Amino acid sequence: MATIEDVARRAGVSQSTVSYALSGKRPISADTRRRIEKAIEELGYRPHAGARALASARTDVIGLMAPLRTGVDVNVIMQFVAGVVTGASRSGYDVLLLTQDEGSVARVTSSSMVDALVVMDVEDDDARLPALQNLRQPAVLIGLPTDPHGLSCVDLDFAQAGAVAVRRLVAAGHRSIALIGSPAEVVSRHTSYAERMTRGFVGACEAAGAAYLVLPTAASAAGAVASVDRILAMMPDVTGLVVHNEVALPHVISRFQMRGRGVPDQVSVVAVCPENVAVSLPSPVTSVDIPAESIGQIAVEMLTGLMKDPSRGEVRLVSPRLTERGSVHEVEVVTGA
Question: What is the CATH number of domain 158-291?
Fold first, then answer.
């Protein structure tokens, strides 16, 4: 196999000059660069991946930070990942999946391992934001922190998703509504989507004059059972339910039925979840769909735009779409005499 020494000899330059041409660390005249490129082609020289990246200032790799923190639904996370991978493939990029949180930003960017970053599981006051803001590489967040620090963001508009779910129940006559929310550990981290979902839910209930209850719920059968029992103890007249917890959803419905509150006759349900979750239940539920794969693809589209023009930063929130699947029952609204 040809070596960098062979290339230098063929091009009539020093090895350091070939190295500078590959790395871009020093300016090389156009004539010298052409001789080096010709020598590389004639000899079939193949620099290692790091040198190729330095030569072109590109790796053709997008880093995807998807830290596997407690309380997250890995199945939903993987839908976002699938969207990023699909979008990257269409744009000619590979994806480096980063599941560790601490130090990942500095490690992969300072060593030029990636051309850009997609960052998931964003918190309201995310500790990664200052580092991301100062990167040479562009970054897109899947999530919306309180202050994006000028970074580009894309996500479902979870505040509107919560509001849309409540308005559907209110329109059907429900005035006692509970939210089965994200697990407590997700809420305690002030994860962006959970915070916005709750704000949208509470705001819509208050605007409609509806009684409401918000319960963080463990992503498990036991967590679902505990939350349903607590709802029935604290709000026995509950008739409307918003569920933003994919793992708990089927167990919530089962527990209400066991407690003599069938869906939708006694309790109406609107879920906020990916479409496949809503339709996979024995009786599909009306839902505000989380288009996870689509959002992943949009994140890559935004990244490729930023790589061409760094001034194209933006915050893009996908409008929620409610799909009727028969789990909302109309109730008679009793008015005062």
Answer: 3.40.50.2300
Same fold, 4-56 and 158-291: no
Give the burial string for 204-241 (b: 16+ CB within 10 Å, else e). Answer: bbeebebebbbbbbbbeeebbbbbbeebbeebeebbbb
With a pLDDT cut of 90, the percent of the chain lying above it is 67
**CA separation for the pair 126, 128 (Å, rounded):** 5
DSSP β-bridge partners for residue 197: none
Instruction: Read off the pLDDT of residues 14-73 as tens digits, 9 standing for 90 and up.
Output: 988 888 787 666 778 889 988 998 998 899 887 655 555 544 556 789 999 988 788 888
Instruction: Break the chain into its structural domains and give their ranges.
Output: 4-56, 61-156+293-320, 158-291
Could you tell me the CATH superfamily of domain 4-56? lambda repressor-like DNA-binding domains (1.10.260.40)
CATH superfamily label, 61-156+293-320: Response regulator (3.40.50.2300)
Output the pTM of the full model: 0.80
